[in-house]
Amino acid sequence: MPTQLQHNNTDNFNKKFPIKLLCDGVKSPSNLGALFRICDALGVSEIVFFNSDLTIKSSRLQKTARSTQKKVLYRISTNIISEIDNFKKEGFQILALEITDKSISVENILVSKNKKTILIIGNEQNGISENVLNLADKAISIPMFGENSSMNVVQATSIALYSIINKLYIY
User: Residue 11: pLDDT above 90?
Assistant: First the structure.
């Protein structure tokens, strides 16, 4: 029978992948904290926040992040358009996690192995801004089988990041 391991008995890979998360207007301290936590767990190299209510000292963010905000590189951008332009010049592929008429399911995306990647996620209510969405190389989405047409931004980001990392860097 398996024995559950405690945190101090767990081997972590402590690996960073050349993938960055660009957050377009994510506001909730709980979601922001959970994004730090999932980015740490999945080896995301950096989080870039734009138009977000990022208050690192927020007790809600800190409780949800469980100190990962101290481990994951992050910064705040004041011009998301120029950020994306710079990322493109640096050779990043830009993926937007959004349901659109041209979205490709995460399991069907064709991406170059080991290619530097930006994943853009959007605001909890309105998704990714149209001007930002138009700059993406591809829109990706997660197939859903229930009646609701959306899921929480953190859960969706977790699924997308895991899928991308598996396709690009692991298998």
Answer: no
Domain boundaries, the chain: 17-170
User: Is residue 22 within a helix (H) or strand (E), and if so which, with residue range?
Assistant: strand 17-24
Q: What pLDDT does residue 74 have? A: 98
45-49, 87-91, 93-97, 108-112 — which is least confidently predicted?
A: 108-112
Task: Strands of 25-145 (E only): list them.
Answer: 44-50, 74-77, 93-97, 104-105, 117-122, 138-141
In the numeric block, the tokens 């859903």 are attached to: 144
CATH class of 17-170: alpha beta
φ/ψ of 144, rounded to 5, equals -125, 145
Task: Tell me which of 114 and 163 has the higher pLDDT.
Answer: 163
* Cβ atoms of 20 and 47 closer than 8 Å: yes
Q: What residues are paired with 118 via a beta bridge? A: 20, 94
Chain centre to alpha carbon of residue 65:
14
Residue 34 has pLDDT above 90, yes or no: yes
Identify whether the C-beta of residue 111 lies closer than 8 Å to the C-beta of residue 155.
no
- Taking the alpha carbons at both ends of the chain, their separation in whole angstroms is 29
CB 127 within 8 A of CB 136: no
